[in-house]
Amino acid sequence: MTTDTTTPVVSNFIRSAIDADLDSGKHQRTITRFPPEPNGYLHVGHAKSICLNFGIKEDYKARGLASECNLRFDDTNPERESVEYAQSIQDDVHWLGFEWDGNVRWASDYFEQLYLYAEELIGKGLAYVCELNADDMREYRGDFGKPGKNSPFRDRTVEENLALFRAMRAGEFEDGSRTLRLKIDMASPNLNMRDPVIYRIRRVHHIRTGDAWCIYPMYDYTHCISDALEGITHSLCTLEFADHRPLYDWVLDNISIGCHPQQIEFSRLELLYALTSKRKLNQLVTDGKVSGWDDPRMPTVSGMRRRGYSPAGIRLFAERCGVSKSENVIDYSVLEGAVRETLEAEVPRVMAVLDPIKVTLSNFEAGVTSSRSAPFHPHHPEFGERDVPIAATIYLDREDFAEVPPPGWQRLTPGGEVRLRYSYVMKCDEVIKDATGKVVELKCSLDPATLGQNPVGRKVKGVIHWVSAEHSVQAEVRLYERLFTVERPDAVRGEDGQYIDFVQFLNPESFKTVMGYVEAAVTGAAPETRYQFERLGYFVTDRKDHVPGSKLVFNRTVGLKDSWVK
Ligand code: ATP
Ligand code: MG
What we know:
Low-confidence stretches: 1-7
Oligomer: single chain
Number of helices: 12
Mean pLDDT: 96
Bound molecules: adenosine-5'-triphosphate, magnesium ion
Distance between the termini: 35 Å
Helix content: 10-25%
Structural class: alpha/beta
């Protein structure tokens, strides 16, 4: 049950730059890459980057070019990286509907080449082994508006540097005691160019290379060379790397690599009411504030998936975020809107009652009172139909009954009538309450002449959903709201000017479980099956806890309209 939700390709400044390179003959095709560090699960910001990089490949392929997009792990910080994270990232990219070209790439595949390029730089007098400790290094580095000082180790001979670098690799020095640095310019106004460290000594087990290396290359050095080794044409990254571009270019200009990808920066997506930082999301997981990386309230790809967001919805959202260099702050409702829009035509509709009031139908007659069948979607007959059985006891949602109706009320009220969706017109004859005054049951009667017919001589406007007590099935329904109560949970300052811990802004109402009744048609649904519960919203069977036929568990994906009250 999929519908075509592809949106026309919207151009942006990156596509314009690529078009210019194709027109000028600089490139005959595009090769982009998505380069995550496997140090956490992907979030909605990464989804934007995935859609951008893989989207370029798809669009240019559609124009007949042999474009490609790689998935490359930037695995140069072994202490923070894990196989679990790397696997989840691959699963997420696939789930979003993208396929990388060739094998998964790893920066660690290039460790030997990276090492050899470092020797080349040493040989050219462009890199040196430095023995400043971290504090001294910071001190020598200077600051904005304050030039740095040359390291006392800067003028070692090539031979000395080569011997020391080889000794670093051979494990002859303590962790942190030496680094390899580029010899660029300690007075550069760009701090990234002040003799950046490109190798450090770290005895940490690596998920792929094990203990083969005790020196690891730094991100800036690794990234540009990995891009060039893969023949990347356009290396797209977020704006905070703009100041690193001179270094990216410097490294490639000074080694014999014969390929020089163009780095282009775009603005990071920031989603209001959510966090887009793996480190902060990790904190929520580690501190048990959520049930895991895939908690349906998390803005992770796996969380959005479990919540019931569809890949098409997330891709539509990414498209709507656009690609530019200006701030990309997007309200959560834009994400929900895109999800809702794609689900509207894609998923079957059934009825469910989540806050039931029991209704006894006084004139129900077995064998006489009959049911109708109803389509699963009003505009998609191909979704099929099911019977909507009625019985002497039915359930309505508490919200659809008011003893004292507010003005304009079109639902049930004592003595009033409503249409039961796909069934009869029903009148409320009696309200039964418990000792506390709570309504516990309604006694109602059906107008037998109104099955599929308008009542004669009067108009009944309200149509409400309901289920038959004996024909419906019970389901656990998990109701989710936004995880945070403020737009920017990690940017609120207290009176002392310090940031307040974002945990303070967790929404205590963000998760509630109810037992509801759903039409029996859903009983056999596999995990991750989506439905619209009429008038209530979109729901999905839980990926982990739902067991078809025995334990039904639904997650609320999103309501039918934007109901968020700020
Ligand atoms: P985080 O701070 O969450 O760890 P990161 O940028 O360090 O994010 P990486 O794994 O290095 O995470 O990111 C992989 C790719 O995703 C990079 O190219 C990065 O620019 C991009 N990316 C990360 N966050 C966002 C975002 N919020 N919006 C757009 N692109 C993003
Ligand atoms: Mg990173």
